[in-house]
């Protein structure tokens, strides 16, 4: 969804904020040891987050130096007491892309594909349009959002998303994707026009992630859902990931709200492969993902490798945003996810052996910034703990 690119657009604003926060943390950390345990502080951050306008509830998962913390706050439905729980299934939106990136990193290491492969070698039929002046779209361009493909296919979905907060948006998306399958995607892919050389300019593309899933299906000769469950089940013990839900599982799907609409809205419609935004997971499953990322095995390390460096502070790996030059966080890896009734963030911060997953069951134009503030607060508190522990060690 389009809201994922907020993390890129807000990057410089965040850098200024975080430098100030880092200086404050450094000045305060040596004066006192944090009074509260970290679990309580995470709970406090969750409580503060849902005080923001329109936010109903939140769940936060943290892995910090091997310790796990999960906190839930708020009521899922307005006027109906009821916390989210460890069993609640959430739509993680475009965080799904990092899972696709992980599978592609594994495929690269297994020599199933090369980053420089022309994507057309994995397509049936002719696609003379998927190039610009002889330069083809390559797999690395899909992963780094530099392919020149549109955000969504069909193109009319982008018109709907241009006014994301309009109350009609969820229903219009449902109508577009109600009978939109893989054959429709390929038909629309034939009509795409590439207006610039691939590999240079950032242009967020969920269509590129869907094409990535097709390539993975082609080389492994398995459907994407089974590839996802198989690899992450074996490598990260993530056995509960779902692209589609059974009737029983659907009962555990988080209720969610779009924009300022007081009436709960419908789930994200199913995309042809679902790789760009259809994964559902519980918070404990996402905590397993944080552990998997922090372990930094060969596949994770490959997925975090910069494929395109846009400037000294911002790069893209295998769908991961890579941010450098942050005094407080150091180099970190992040992604935002958003669907019409849920938004979330994942942050991997190696400097503190820290992973954070935050999700809300509301999706509006201020939701991402509210979650970023919550994450910044958590990182500040952990930085204070680290500084205090280091000061104590040298006494």
UniProtKB/TrEMBL annotation:
Gene3D superfamilies: DD-peptidase/beta-lactamase superfamily. It is an enzyme of class 3 (hydrolase). Residues 55-374 form the Beta-lactamase-related domain. Residues 1-31 form the signal peptide. Keywords: Antibiotic resistance, Hydrolase, Signal. It catalyses: a beta-lactam + H2O = a substituted beta-amino acid. One of its GO terms (molecular function) is beta-lactamase activity. Its EC number is 3.5.2.6. GO terms for biological process: antibiotic catabolic process; response to antibiotic. PROSITE patterns: BETA_LACTAMASE_C. One of its GO terms (cellular component) is outer membrane-bounded periplasmic space. PANTHER family: BETA-LACTAMASE-RELATED DOMAIN-CONTAINING PROTEIN, D-ALANYL-D-ALANINE-CARBOXYPEPTIDASE/ENDOPEPTIDASE AMPH. Belongs to the class-C beta-lactamase family. This is Beta-lactamase. It comes from Stenotrophomonas lactitubi. The lineage of its organism: Bacteria, Pseudomonadati, Pseudomonadota, Gammaproteobacteria, Lysobacterales.
């Amino acid at each position: 969804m389009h809201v994922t690119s907020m993390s890129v657009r807000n990057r410089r604003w965040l850098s200024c904020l975080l430098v100030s926060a880092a200086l404050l943390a450094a000045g305060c950390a040596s004066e006192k040891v944090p009074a509260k345990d970290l679990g309580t502080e995470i709970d406090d951050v969750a409580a503060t987050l849902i005080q923001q306008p329109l936010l109903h509830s939140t769940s936060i998962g943290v892995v910090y130096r091997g310790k796990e913390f999960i906190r839930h706050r708020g009521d899922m439905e307005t006027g109906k007491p009821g916390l989210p729980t460890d069993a609640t299934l959430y739509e993680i939106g475009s965080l799904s892309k990092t899972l696709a990136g992980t599978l592609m990193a594994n495929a690269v290491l297994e020599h199933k594909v090369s980053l420089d492969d022309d994507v057309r070698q994995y397509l049936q039929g002719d696609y003379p349009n998927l190039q610009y002046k002889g330069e083809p779209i390559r797999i690395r361009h899909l992963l780094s959002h530099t392919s020149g493909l549109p955000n969504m296919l069909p193109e009319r979905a982008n018109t709907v998303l241009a006014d994301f907060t309009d109350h009609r948006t969820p229903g219009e998306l449902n109508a577009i994707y109600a009978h939109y399958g893989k054959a429709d995607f390929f038909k629309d892919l034939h009509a795409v026009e590439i207006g610039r050389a691939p590999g240079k300019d950032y242009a967020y593309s969920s269509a590129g992630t869907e094409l990535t899933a097709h390539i993975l299906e082609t080389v492994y000769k398995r459907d994407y859902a089974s590839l996802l469950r198989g690899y992450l089940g074996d490598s990260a013990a993530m056995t509960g990931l779902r692209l589609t839900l059974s009737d029983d599982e659907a009962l555990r799907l988080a209720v969610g709200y779009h924009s300022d609409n007081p009436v709960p809205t419908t789930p994200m419609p199913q995309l042809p492969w679902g790789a760009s935004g259809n994964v559902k997971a519980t918070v404990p499953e996402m905590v397993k993902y944080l552990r998997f990322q922090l372990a930094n095995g060969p596949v994770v390390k490959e997925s975090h490798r910069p494929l395109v460096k846009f400037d000294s502070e911002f790069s893209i790996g295998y769908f991961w945003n890579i941010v450098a030059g942050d005094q407080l966080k150091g180099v970190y890896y992040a992604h935002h996810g958003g669907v019409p009734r849920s938004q979330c963030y994942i942050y991997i911060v190696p400097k503190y052996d820290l992973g954070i997953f935050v999700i809300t069951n509301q999706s509006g134009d201020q939701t991402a910034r509210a979650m970023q503030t919550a994450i910044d607060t958590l990182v500040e508190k952990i930085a204070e703990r680290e500084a205090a522990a280091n000061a104590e060690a040298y006494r």
